[in-house]
């Protein structure tokens, strides 16, 4: 949780550059914005309803990102910011999260244990 989806930046660069050097450009942009997200001096949040922080859409850096690269990278950065703020607002570093890729959601502890036991049984039997 809290890492930027690189696909959004690849798609944005592909629209502007074509296919040449898309991966390099996207990787550099993702690294730049990941560092911005982890910078505790940058606070793109404002108090929202129910005491929760919400993204300040007036923030200069976010406006620049949206203007220069478009909505998809902007949404990827905002999603990463919200995840970091939810899980680790003080240190602002990404947090590992169990993920159910087929259903595109967080995996429950029960699902993780079931998967681990099934893998263990499979490897035990195959030896």
Automatic annotation (TrEMBL):
It comes from the Eukaryota. One of its GO terms (biological process) is gene silencing by siRNA-directed DNA methylation. It holds the Pfam family XH. Residues 1-123 form the Factor of DNA methylation 1-5/IDN2 domain. This is Factor of DNA methylation 5-like protein. The lineage of its organism: Eukaryota, Viridiplantae, Streptophyta, Embryophyta, Tracheophyta.
